[in-house]
Amino acid sequence: MENKTFTISVYSENNVGLLNRISVIFLKRHINILSLNVSESEIENVSRFVIVVDTTEKWVKNIVGQIEKQIEVIKAFYHIDEETIFLESAIFKINSSLLFDERQIQNIIKESHSEIVTVSRDFFVISKTGRRSEIDELHAKLKPFGIMQFVRSGRISVSKEKMEITSLLEELQS
Amino acid sequence: MRISGAEAVIRCLLEEGVNLVYGYPGGAIMPVYDELYKFKDELHHVLVRHEQGATHAAQGFARATGKVGVAIATSGPGATNLVTGIADAQIDSTPMVCITGQVGKHLLGSDAFQETDIISISTPVTKWNYQITEAHEIPEIMAKAFYIAKSGRPGPVLIDITKNAQFDELDFSYKKCTSIRSYVPKPSLKLEQVKAAAEIINSAKKPMIVFGQGIILGEAEAELKAFVEKTGIPAAWTVLGLSAMPTDHPLNVGMVGMHGNYGPNVLTNECDVLIALGMRFDDRVTGNLATYAKQAKVIHFEIDPAEVDKNVKADVAVLGDVKETLAAILSMVDSKTHESWHNEFKEKYNIELEAVINDELQPKKEGISMGETIEMINKHSKGDAIMVSDVGQHQMFTCRYSKFNSTKSNITSGGLGTMGFALPAAIGAKMGRPDREVVAIIGDGGFQMTIQELGTIFQTQVPVKIVVLNNEFLGMVRQWQQLFFDKRYASTEMINPNFIAIAEGYYIKAKKVTKREDLDAAVAEMMASKESYFLEVLVEKENNVFPMIPTGASVSDIRLS
């Protein structure tokens, strides 16, 4: 079975130890977590993990089962890229002089549809939200000019299909 | 009621019906011990000699009774010493609650004396764990702990309680936990799954059942028996499924797995339908997965959805509590006998009898065999004893040759293979079932891993029977060295102490048997003893356990020699 990129979505209670409990499941099988994002979900007091991994479908199925059986996990799903809308964000800190001295920089910002977040005497910050490839492209273009700091977030995604979580919670609570 | 956190811990245990706990005191758990002193008439605490012993005793208690076993330890080394038993309980689905003391909340993370992050350490090996840092959390968390440990597929839960939470006061009221919104203990029965399974079973020509511990944990013994008897399907057991049906039941065809019986292993690869009941296709059961039951339709009765398709792909998965699903399928399956199919098992059994069993039970060699010792215990126990085995050759002989009339009678470390398990587990089993004879079968290696628990036996006067099968080797590893490492016996020879003197040092009646003619009388004396009894049997040094599926081989390539 071939490896693919899977996005795992986990709905869970907001619990301190749960991240550790979930990451252990990947660790046991030597699966590298490519990206991880934890945030609130559309449901009050329910957290949502978005985990991106590169593995086989058999393993991702096993893993999702093992995640789902953790006590505080309400439900876990997995999707391939085609089944989700996904984004990442990145911010770049760049020397301010470049903004004025290098015309090319302004073109790059414009063409990449990135945003200038702040400009100060010494540096300016731009942000870009989009697919990984778009961020990588922007990074490649800015790199020759010198990047003071760069950081990229984990993937966030929503599925195209409905994830039956709200009804499930209602069922569980009734 | 305004009480201390420590008292609340005791009251929670009493509310859960616990009257027996195993443990070892220490600094961070002292407030709880102080309360144990006050409650000693209601809650009996057994002082073990090492915290690992507390977990195995709690496991033995749980496995023999079906109730939750409880172990208590202090922070730091006390807590880390529990880890082996917790891991064992996790992989063998044993309901257990471990309570550990922890340094005060204000010291957490400061590398304080005897501080260890037991929550992180125990996370991969617990069903659930939680650190209590405020006294008021105790009742709710303890209730959750017991609910989680026992419900669904059982498992170990660890509750770590900081010292301040034990000292501080709370308004105590207890409410048992009956549900947690994010936790589904067992999937609900789906009639279409049961129907699909019944259809396949009814059209099967050569069906075979493999039942596991799920039957025992789900208390589905009667349902299993009814299902097997109506369908007439040959039923084999896994190591942990053993004793769920009487071993002499005519439809039983023996044990599957690495050292299981020849017939059920070989015929796994010839059956047309394989019905797995409450078992998880462990690699010691399946051998090489690529060649395991490929010709068969697989029906998997399972409580834990994560086990379905994990190792073996199921054609039909029947999710839910096996007690309910087996009861539901009974009226849908046809009454059959499968006579000629049973004859194939009988033929295979006769091959094994000739090649292996006769020689094991009536050996021609001068030395006593492990198998004949088990057979001698059968003769005197009549199959009514709880057999607690350790890990290694003697364990496989115990599982292969013990006679069992009733359930919850085979207690052994199956999934984790924990040497040192049996002696403390036997203590727990006997305390849980004082009405039953409990015999621990242990090798000379494993015995020395938790030998200090003889002290617990002496102090509590618990009348367990201990049999050490001494071959002066770490026998199972030696067997592998002989077969696969060209007889290079690296660090498997044991120069043993005088076990009789050690047992007698703990004031336990002890006897050593070295000759076959003395075995009968010695086993009779041990079984008749009202007190604990230690029997050392010097067995043939280099006997092997057969049949055997070598690692990576197919179940049908099982070796008879």
Structure report:
The complex is a heterodimer of chains A (174) and B (561). Chain A is an alpha+beta fold and 174 residues long. Chain A has two domains: 4-85 and 160-166, ACT domain (Alpha-Beta Plaits), CATH 3.30.70; 86-152, 2-Layer Sandwich (Alpha-Beta Plaits), CATH 3.30.70. Helices cover 33% and strands 40% of the residues of chain A. Chain A is built from six helices and nine strands. Chain A has helices spanning 18-28, 57-68, 96-101, 103-111, 132-142, 166-173, and strands spanning 4-13, 33-40, 46-55, 73-80, 84-95, 115-119, 123-130, 149-152, 156-159. The radius of gyration of chain A is 20 Å and the shape is elongated. The N and C termini of chain A lie far apart (41 Å). The mean pLDDT of chain A is 93. Chain B has 561 residues and is of the alpha/beta class. Chain B has three domains: 2-171, 3-Layer(aba) Sandwich (Rossmann fold), CATH 3.40.50.970; 191-345, Rossmann fold (3-Layer(aba) Sandwich), CATH 3.40.50; 366-538, Rossmann fold (3-Layer(aba) Sandwich). In chain B, 39% of the residues lie in helices and 17% in strands. Chain B contains 23 helices and 20 strands. In chain B, the strands form four sheets. In chain B, strands 3-2-4-5-7-6 form a six-stranded parallel β-sheet, sandwiched between helices. In chain B, helix 12 packs across helix 15 (339-361). Chain B is globular. The mean pLDDT of chain B is 98. The A-B interface holds A 12-13, 17, 20-21, 24, 28, 58, 61-62, 65-66, 68-69, 71-74, 169, 172-173 and B 119-120, 123-124, 127-131, 148, 180-184, 304-310. Chain A: Keywords: Amino-acid biosynthesis, Branched-chain amino acid biosynthesis, Transferase. Chain A: This is Acetolactate synthase small subunit.
